[in-house]
Amino acid sequence: MNDVPTRHLGSLAVSAQGLGCMGMSHGYGASDDTQSIATVRHALDLGVTLLDTADFYGAGHNEELLGRAVAGRRDEVVLATKFGFANRLGEPTRVRGDAAYVRQACEASLRRLGVDHIDLYYQHRVDPQVPIEETVGAMAELVRAGKVRHLGLSEAGEQTLRRAHAVHPIAALQSEWSLWTRDLEAEIAPVCRELGIGLVPFSPLGRGFLTGRYSSVEGLAETDVRRSQPRFADGNLERNLSIVEKLNELAEAKKVTAGQLALAWVQHRGQDVVPIPGTRRQRYLEENLAALTVELSADDLAAIEAAAPAEQVAGTRYDATSLTFVDN
Ligand SMILES: NC(=O)c1ccc[n+]([C@@H]2O[C@H](COP(=O)([O-])OP(=O)(O)OC[C@H]3O[C@@H](n4cnc5c(N)ncnc54)[C@H](OP(=O)(O)O)[C@@H]3O)[C@@H](O)[C@H]2O)c1
What we know:
Layout: E1 6-9, E2 12-15, E3 19-20, H1 33-45, E4 50-52, H2 61-70, E5 78-83, H3 99-113, E6 118-123, H4 132-144, E7 148-154, H5 158-167, E8 170-176, H6 188-195, E9 198-202, H7 236-254, H8 258-267, H9 282-290, H10 298-307, H11 320-323
Parallel strand pairs: 3-4, 4-5, 5-6, 6-7, 7-8, 8-9
Antiparallel strand pairs: 1-2
Helix pairs in contact: 1-2, 3-4, 4-5, 5-6, 7-8
The structure holds NADP nicotinamide-adenine-dinucleotide phosphate.
């Protein structure tokens, strides 16, 4: 079965919705590999082609897991991975983008994924110590060597995008974009459109919050990163719940879920937008894919946006330290 429409990131054809695989190894508490692999394969069966991982997720575990999940089905998949966080989990964040590191990171990812090329290779965060020309120059060498097909950046700012794109075409910018995180709309998205760079919104469900599943952090594992994220903090979370309440009302009227409405809103940002909701579960995967069929009128879009005005969103999307690694 393959009824998921196709969209393009630069010249790379992908399913209009991808699958974010981070939570299968990282960030959101314990996972079950068997369940995760079944979810990835179910995604392929349903017509999803774009799978998103990174070397940092679970310190390599996520790439190895994906390698196992797509074994024998390599041709059906657009494998996207990332490099750049050079610290181990739990250590202070260290970003690297020097040419030697790019080459070394790519070899390690290829090995863990068990493939001979990566379809979309992103720099996870821009290294402020290294000119982007050096980083993208090294990534472009990987393209010439046949190890990588297309290049991407994550959380890169306007000037970085322009400089990077001048070295080698950038197919995609992967940055946070959802109803409650709209920072890139003013300046960054227009630059992407000018340059023909596709947009891959990460955390399009607000790390699950916009589905209405979390009314407190009580049920989250002790290790869940959301416990330390400002929008889930005491006081902020309660205020943010009012967004979900309004979203729920709108969703009920359209006979969909709040999560589907939040995803459909992202999908309606443009034909060059390919969100990658993350889930470990087949049930949520199916629900999220069904959001592709939700049609929203201009009035619907306005009502959805009115449910989540910027001044209503309590707390920054990352803590202060993590925000310093976002390139502006
Ligand atoms: N480039 C970057 O710096 C960066 C940063 C963060 C994420 N990402 C990528 O973006 C992907 C998605 O982001 P994300 O996982 O942070 O956030 P997200 O997609 O906004 O939300 C994921 C969370 O929502 C839950 N969920 C998913 N569908 C649901 C549904 N229909 N109903 C209820 N709950 C649902 C998931 O639960 P279960 O897992 O329990 O199913 C998980 O806890 C990641 O997997 C990763 O590949 C990239």
